[in-house]
Design brief:
Blueprint (H helix, E strand, L loop, with lengths): L2 H10 L6 H9 L1 H21 L7 H4 L4 H9 L1 H12 L1 H9 L4 H11 L12 H10 L11 E8 L4 E8 L4 E7 L8 E5 L2 E8 L2 E7 L5 H12 L5
Antiparallel strand pairs: 1-2, 2-3, 3-6, 4-5, 5-6
Helix pairs in contact: 1-3, 2-3, 3-6
Length: 229
């Protein structure tokens, strides 16, 4: 079993990994860490789904037994919807008074420093799968990717990538729902970056002060320029 197949099986049913999955988990530190993240998410979703439901709600909605079974199998999608509804007020405020994208990009890097020290070798197949989740087509080589995952931005789901730079780790935030309008530089503390409009969305590149971000920007434009971002 390879890493991609392990992660697909774990996403389908995180509660009952088969013998092959367990064997792969013991042999692969990266997938073991991923399994730990999924287990923690499963616990949080379990607490969310234990919220009381009004009596007779399923009947009033016309749900039969087969649909209720499908609902249980799709608990991730439903729990995510519940989370969105619960945060509706906050999201509405964010739409009316959005925080500057420059600040959001820098803070995203500052708030998740543990991603900067990871030295994983993310397979291209896994990277493509993450991009497809947010509706983005990967059309080239980004280089050495040490971390790749999904993240929440101001107006929707994005991708958080960490690349190997010349002078340290470089963070890429791929944001399909964040229109930038024009290219602009960002900086705060030890971080320097640039936000590039790409298609209908944008990409933020943040790295150390002496990192040649312009070269990375050209690479990003070639990889995502024809996609949805």
């Amino acid at each position: 079993m390879d890493c991609l197949e392990f992660r697909r099986r774990l996403r389908d049913d995180p509660t009952a990994p088969d013998a092959d999955a367990l064997s792969h988990k013991r042999e692969c530190a990266r997938c073991a860490a991923f399994a730990g993240e999924i287990a923690a998410l499963e616990k949080r979703l379990g607490r969310a789904l234990r919220l009381p439901v009004p009596d007779g709600l399923a009947e009033r909605l016309g749900l039969d037994h087969s649909l209720r079974r499908a609902w249980r199998r799709r608990r991730y999608a439903i729990a995510a919807s519940l989370a969105v509804l619960a945060l509706g007020g906050a999201l509405a405020l964010g739409v009316l008074w959005p925080r500057p994208l420059d600040l959001v990009a820098i803070e995203h890097v500052e708030n998740e420093p543990y991603h900067l020290v990871k030295r994983l070798d993310v397979p291209v197949a896994e990277l493509r799968e993450i991009m497809q989740t947010i509706g983005v087509t990967l059309r080239g080589d980004l280089g050495e990717v040490h971390y790749a995952g999904l993240c929440k931005m101001r107006r929707g789901l994005g991708a958080h990538l960490v690349l190997a730079g010349d002078h340290g780790p470089v963070t890429l935030l791929v944001m399909p729902e964040e229109a930038a309008g024009s290219s602009r530089s960002v900086s705060r503390g030890p971080w320097r970056g640039v936000i590039l409009p790409v298609g209908a969305g944008s990409v933020a590149i943040v790295g150390p002060p002496n990192e040649p971000l312009e070269a990375i920007g050209e690479r990003v434009g070639a990889v995502f320029g024809a996609g949805r971002v």
